[in-house]
Amino acid sequence: GGQPTKETAGAASGPAPAAGGGTFAVVTHASAGDAFWDVVKNGAEAAGKRYGVTVTYQGDGDPARQSQLIDQAVSQKVDGLVVSMANPDALKESVGKAVTAGIPVITINSGGDVSREFGAVTHVGQSEDVAGRGAGEKLKAEGVTKLLCVIHEAGNVGLDQRCNGATQGLGGTVERLQVDVGNLADATSKIKARLQADTSLNGVLTLNPAVAVAARDAIADGGSKAKLGTFDLSADVVAAIEDGEILFAVDQQQYLQGWLPITFLTLYKENLNTVGGGLPVNTGPGFVTKDNAAKVAKLAESGTR
Amino acid sequence: MTVADERLAATGVARRLLIRPELGAVVGALVVFAFFAGQSEVFRSVEGVANWLDPASTLGIMAVAIALLMIGGEFDLSAGVLTGTVGLVTVILATRYDLPVWAAMLAALAVALLVGFLNGLVVVRTGLPSFIVTLATFLMLQGVNLGVTKALTGTVQVGGLRRAEGYEEVRAVLAGTIPVGGTDFRVAILWWLAVTALATWVLTRTRAGNWIFAVGGDERAARAVGVPAERTKIALFVTTAGAAWLVGSIMALRFTSVQAGSGVGQEFVYIIAAVIGGCLLTGGHGSAIGAAVGAVIFGMADKGIVFAGWDADWFTFFLGAMLLLATLANRFVRRYAEEVKR
Amino acid sequence: MTVADERLAATGVARRLLIRPELGAVVGALVVFAFFAGQSEVFRSVEGVANWLDPASTLGIMAVAIALLMIGGEFDLSAGVLTGTVGLVTVILATRYDLPVWAAMLAALAVALLVGFLNGLVVVRTGLPSFIVTLATFLMLQGVNLGVTKALTGTVQVGGLRRAEGYEEVRAVLAGTIPVGGTDFRVAILWWLAVTALATWVLTRTRAGNWIFAVGGDERAARAVGVPAERTKIALFVTTAGAAWLVGSIMALRFTSVQAGSGVGQEFVYIIAAVIGGCLLTGGHGSAIGAAVGAVIFGMADKGIVFAGWDADWFTFFLGAMLLLATLANRFVRRYAEEVKR
Amino acid sequence: MTGDGAVTEGGTDAPPLLEVRDVGKTFGGVIALRDVSMRVRAGEVSCVLGDNGAGKSTLIKILSGVHAPDSGSYLVDGAPAAFASPRDALDKGIATVYQDLAMIPLMSVWRNFFLGSEPVLGRGPLRRFDVTGAKRTVREELRSMGIDIRDVDQPVGTLSGGERQSVAIARAVHFGARVLILDEPTSALGVKQAGVVLRYVAQARDRGLGVVFITHNPHHAYPIGDRFLLLNRGASLGEYAKADITPEELTSLMAGGAELEQLAHELSRGGPAAGPGTPGTPGTPETPETGPPP
Amino acid sequence: MTGDGAVTEGGTDAPPLLEVRDVGKTFGGVIALRDVSMRVRAGEVSCVLGDNGAGKSTLIKILSGVHAPDSGSYLVDGAPAAFASPRDALDKGIATVYQDLAMIPLMSVWRNFFLGSEPVLGRGPLRRFDVTGAKRTVREELRSMGIDIRDVDQPVGTLSGGERQSVAIARAVHFGARVLILDEPTSALGVKQAGVVLRYVAQARDRGLGVVFITHNPHHAYPIGDRFLLLNRGASLGEYAKADITPEELTSLMAGGAELEQLAHELSRGGPAAGPGTPGTPGTPETPETGPPP
Ligand SMILES: Nc1ncnc2c1ncn2[C@@H]1O[C@H](COP(=O)(O)OP(=O)(O)OP(=O)(O)O)[C@@H](O)[C@H]1O
Ligand SMILES: Nc1ncnc2c1ncn2[C@@H]1O[C@H](COP(=O)(O)OP(=O)(O)OP(=O)(O)O)[C@@H](O)[C@H]1O
Ligand SMILES: [Mg+2]
Ligand SMILES: [Mg+2]
What we know:
Chain A is of the alpha/beta class. Chain A contains twelve helices and eleven strands. In chain A, the strands form two sheets. In chain A, strands 7-6-8-9-10-11 form a six-stranded mixed β-sheet, sandwiched between helices. In chain A, strands 2-1-3-4-5 form a five-stranded parallel β-sheet, sandwiched between helices.
């Protein structure tokens, strides 16, 4: 890896708006490096490049810090704002400030129910629990009755909502397990321990592709028969789906949650269009299974699925 | 001092000014400010300043309290998660049990002080390092926050404080804004200044301050000359808990909802700010103003990178580089100052 | 020792056995083991043991290295993220630049040792606390890991090591398994034992060990009697980096893909394990075996809660309680032992 | 000289300021002190003498509340006392100069001086450390000891060994109200400063304080001491009143017998620098600290 | 006695082992040492004398490589030397007992003793600290100093003050090959141990080592010293050969003049304990450390 220089970093997404373009800020509730949100970022940046606008991406899981990032974008007088609202209460004030300042706001991923009320132009994507419900239903169809939902960041609302959704979708028992995504040996060992200790568990749902790989190993090592589903994709996950080790990966097509709002904002800015008259636009859920895994394999590797 | 002593070298006025240990931190802050002011116009605008002073203020309150504790030779890893506990208790009591906001806050204060007291008590009684004791508290509180919140609400966050009785009044005092030059500054900044001034007073001008330096510098020696070391340490833990209550309340009132994981990971940011500001990890040396400035340095670097528009993927890289830069500037100035005196 | 001295009280054999400082940690470990063995049958089965020894082994390797560093009076917060860096470099070189696995690992070793060397150099040259220096390294490496991985792959992880040249051979040595009593134990456990034995030998039976204790106990005094303090400290940072390389390689070979965020947050777990094992945060005291046992305690508590099937929401609560219990047991035994000698 | 030189109960009716009876102290397996008794009377200087490691410091740490005795009893003004901490001893007017628990190196001279007994100004929330007063007092106290400190804001850790010790002594003298305990106070002091300390001790004694004085220097101990407690390997060799012991006996006891006689000859040599002051010249003590020739 | 008592260039042709010329040292604004010159010759004991804070320790820290001088030059065997660390000095056979940089409290006695010069056994990767040999050596060295240590595994921090100092001295004597620098080595020692140390110094001198000896005790300095360097407030008051100075002059110089004469009278009193040994008795030094009566 080369040493980054200020120039290259600045050039990638510097604040200087391209001629005729504008600056759109994306502020999400996930820290840098999150597999799911990284694809959103890729989508937003690709759209920015396509439309000749500048896109800045920031994120923080702490609602207080997320709201500060929104405040910062407002004081930078961006031309548009894209916000994911995992904790709408905490963001109300900051989003309100943006709306008052005349900045068009589009909400993504979660917070669709209050999007309108907060004055957003529209909402793209659906909340985590809808996606979770989809996963739960899918697992139920595979005969899972007792599910282990592996949370890799304790207290994170988004992950909690996914597990809650899965509970609703499954209709059976859902147990939770906390692991540390920074240490996969530890995650493997914990999942294995749980499966060893409670042999009635016959399904595992992970919320992160790296944890999915750890869960796959744990199931194999421990000789368990549990079925495994996961959120989000990586090359390893796609390969495992092809091999039948992982049943499916929930694919919210989150690339669209980055791409579409930038598109919408550009249209709104140039032409005052609001797609669907402001009705929420759904991006998923989709599923990657053995049937379509081969097709998305390449895309997952390049970070757009 | 009054009479010239042939054993003292002559020193210039400018150098003399640099003697105060806080000045190193201030110079570090100036370096960071100058750097980002050059990068971004917004950063140096009034709005920008209001923006980065906002997180610096809450961080600063905690950093000052943690600095006192560190000067006294102890750590508190549970302070961050305790701010979350305070917020959760306040919101839960005010929204689920319909207490007026002030009453809920008082209850949260009692909880916080109790936690601080227990931390201190266990540390002085068992003789275990406070790193381990407060780590255990940290983990246990984290579990309690999550477990209780989930049990009561079924989710990992509670909200709706806005509708609670007496919300607006308390909010104005703790989480409101004050317009200065057309821009809204957070009232927490005033609290931060007050806490810093108070801590500085205590540290430099009271008996308690003398005791804090002493127990951190050499606890056995301090005890031998009659310093009530145990009481001093317990009081420091309670003070830290009090600061956590203040910050937790400010955050809860401002955002009206609290996540169960709130505050986790912040404990190290507090320590970092205190250390940037010149506190020794081994105790016995440091200053409240230094810690407050350390918080500003951290806040500026943290927000400056965003203002400068650098790639978020590289965020931590720049943050690390800025921290190193600021502490090096601090160290450089202090070395220079030490050549003037002592 | 040989002749009876009227100034020594008579001590029993059992008490004498307890004198070794490691014994406190061992007793702490036994307490935790007994506790969970009572809670869960699987926990005490061979399979269960193999399971919780697995993460304890990689943690243990790092804890031992960090313990040496802490005995030498310094911290390394960048060790965790460095394991991630090592993995990323290895996988990227082996898969994107088609190097054989061993060559990629050698390159990663060079990178790791360089990082360790720079950490040490900056610490001894600037005199800044290692807490701050390695914190900056931690942040910067975290940024580099993410930034470079993103730049090269467009995603936040790299994988595909399985297809690289020479993968299977290296894997067998570092990340394979060994069947014992019908259960597969990780070969990393052997590495961990080897590292612990080596570190114990160095610490107790070599000149370098004497120097490590000395620079951590009182650096100025050590320097005054001719201990090469700077070299010793730099060597300790390099050693820690070497351990991070070993652990990073084990993880990369085992999972064949590495996330950009891998290892973040682990640095504190290493320190925790070392402190549970009896290392002083202020330096100058501790043992490698203690740290290794500390890793076992942490590993057992961490997994035991899962085996016992307690509510995951309360996980950290139980973890904190177990750590406190184990360190209290350790302290209790040590106090008792100290009544026997010194 | 035998044990019958030990002091018998005197005619004084007031109970001694401090008294320990058969105290012992062990550290783990180390027996540092065994069955030692001692009294500290008002207006008297009690010297504790003994070889290195004899237990002198351990004994005075018991007197000053740092250690609780493992056995035996401790009486203050005739009433049993159990100090939980040195604070309790200080509150009874017992001030101590420790041999090894002296100062906080990172703190300034004036902060160290008043540590634990800070002078305050104002009241209520405005009660504050009287900083200027404290600095002035420290400067004066040290100057009267013959230490001209450059700057009372200097951290104690950067003082010279003797300067540091002087601060500790000045502090004890300043705060010692009834009993002054000095553990090898003059060990790092210059000739002048040591003289001043001895003068302080005499003044304190004359003001009616009880003084406990530990030293390895018979030239310091004999002139000022009223009673001599001799310790050896943790046990008491007896307590002697000045009347019962000659300086020669004292020196010989402290040195562990006459075996040092020959040292004078060993040190002398026929080297080129031998001048008027070579050992053997009348008027010069022949051997260091072995006392005057018989 | 005036400055013309200073030593003039002698007839010795070998360069001195160590020599400093006009060295100075400042700590920030503090001038600790100014234009001090000194020579250490083989087979000679050079005493450095002076009041507290005079700069003695600073001077010897320059000699032993702890501080680099800010001005002036430092010659070893006549050649300019610049020690980067005490290690360099040790490698030239210069061993030092520091006043304040002594021991690592948490480490055991034997580890401290050999710190920086560990004896090794075996070779290659099997090279190891000779633990049993080290322990035996330490025990023997200490016993020959009159210190009977209970357990060489005891952490140094739990030793008594004198025991600790003895370990440092025994270490320096053990490793001092050409020059032995002792900064107030006898300050915490008992009478017997102090005698042993002086004997060590004499032995080292007779073996041809150069010795630098710092003390506040004229009874220690005069018998053993060949040259006396007097420091005052950081500056040199001159260097005297033993031939040029009488013990009385030396004592008076060390004490800063005759002002101490009256101390003897102040210490005496008509108290009940006054016995045969009261000051004034012939043969007893009247005042502590002020030397013998004229
Ligand atoms: N905390 C401790 N742990 C173990 N041993 C101790 C401790 N403190 C003192 N000792 C031992 O007790 C004995 C008495 O120590 P003490 O300090 O009382 O001696 P001392 O008479 O003051 O000697 P000195 O004249 O050298 O100061 C010594 O042998 C010492 O090693
Ligand atoms: N690191 C330092 N910073 C500031 N001042 C110092 C430092 N070291 C020494 N000094 C000052 O320099 C002067 C000389 O100190 P030094 O230790 O050399 O005296 P000394 O002659 O050894 O005295 P003593 O007989 O008391 O040991 C003292 O006044 C001391 O306060
Ligand atoms: Mg003593
Ligand atoms: Mg000195």
